[in-house]
Amino acid sequence: MEEEKKPEIQIEIDDATAQGVYVNLAMIGHTENEVVLDFIFLQPQASKAKVRSRIITSPGHAKRLLAALQDNISKFEAKFGVIKTVPQPPDQNKINFYH
Fold it and tell me: pTM of the full predicted structure?
């Protein structure tokens, strides 16, 4: 029996998107049907931050994204060592990822 070949997908990216943007804060919200990921840049000592990108996706895609991130972090740490994180008290307004 022959294996079914998955169709090949060609992905294009424009120059501006390929440059990427730096973020140091993320806010995540959800409804029953979608997950909203806001990626934000907050300058040190600033009281105002700017959303650099908003991704709206389905809960199923969000769960697959979580699995892909976990897999990639595991591979990164296997190659470069454990990523150190410093827990921050929840009452301090510091750069972090929120959900």
Answer: 0.75
Task: Of 6-15, 26-35, 44-53, 84-93, give the lowest mean pLDDT range.
Answer: 84-93
The SS3 of residue 16 is helix
In whole angstroms, give the CA distance from residue 23 to residue 5: 38
The alpha helices in the chain, defined as continuous H runs, are 15-19, 59-80
Q: Residue 82 burial (CB < 10 Å; 0-12/13-18/19+)?
A: exposed
Mean per-residue pLDDT, 48-76: 97
Q: Domain map of the chain by residue range?
A: 21-82
